[in-house]
Amino acid sequence: MMAETELDERLLVPQSLEEALLLLSVPYAAPLAGATWLMRAPLRGEARRRAMWRWAG
Fold first, then answer.
1. Which end of the chain is more exposed for a tag (fewer CB within 10 A), N or C?
2. Tens of pLDDT along 8-21?
3. Is the pTM of this model over 0.85?
4. DSSP per residue, the chain
């Protein structure tokens, strides 16, 4: 089961590779990769996601 933090927005932490792959198809979550990539999303015309996730494995 994925761990979730209690923030205004969510940080999803998949506990297995299968959960991480599943999160790739979730439209409201984006992989947390690079902060500048996320900060520049509005400049690319992308909507801000309600949740982020990172691979813990």
1. N
2. 467 788 888 888 88
3. no
4. --EE--SSSEEEE-SSHHHHHHHTT-TTEEE---HHHHHTGGGGTPPPPSEEE----
Tens-place pLDDT, residues 14-46: 888 888 888 888 888 877 776 677 778 888 898
- Residue from 9, 25, 20, 28 nearest 56 by CA: 20
* Dist. CA 23–CA 20, nearest whole Å: 5
Instruction: Give the integer Cα–Cα distance in Å for 54 and 43.
Output: 23
What is the rounded CA–CA span in Å between residue 47 and residue 16?
27
**Based on the number of CB atoms within 10 Å of its own CB, is 9 exposed (0-12), middle (13-18) or buried (19 or more)?**
exposed
